[in-house]
Amino acid sequence: MDPQTRGRRPIVWPAYLVAAVCFAVAVTLSLMNLSLIEQLKSAQSQLALAQARSSGLVRDLTGERGTVADLMDESAQRFDIPGGQIVRVRDRLYITMHDLAQPPRGKVYQAWTMPKTGTALQPSLTFVPDAHGVAVVALSTDAKDVAAVEISVEPDGGSKAPTTKPLVVEQLN
Predict the structure, then answer these.
(1) Confidence bin at 11 (pLDDT 50/70/90)
(2) Most C-beta atoms within 10 A of its C-beta, which of 2, 53, 68, 129?
């Protein structure tokens, strides 16, 4: 061996430098990948929520279209009440109010139905009008079985039996 080459060691620091740079790039790209995965999960979650809301809106819109069609049906029976009407169309029953005051704080309006074969009022839905005094309520009972509808003011959440004198009592003949 030549004395000049014997004392020389190969220069390896450039290889170490390249390895360190590659390691740093790999760590940086891994962190960026983790961040992108989290962003993707968040976007997927937001998309799922938006799809659920959209489906709910479609169901609501479909229901509202049915309600509007029922309320405009020429064969519907209409019973005038103070500030609105009770509308019976086929087996559905609606309360429509156009000038209903907001109930007192902690109170709601509650609908009651009297079955044709019964003697006791049955509790139905609670509701409050919008800011303009408008309320449209689809009662969840078969209209063919109802003899009368009443509306009273009840505690928030409703009651099992009326606690106040009814504001509306309408016989459906």
Answers:
(1) confident
(2) 129
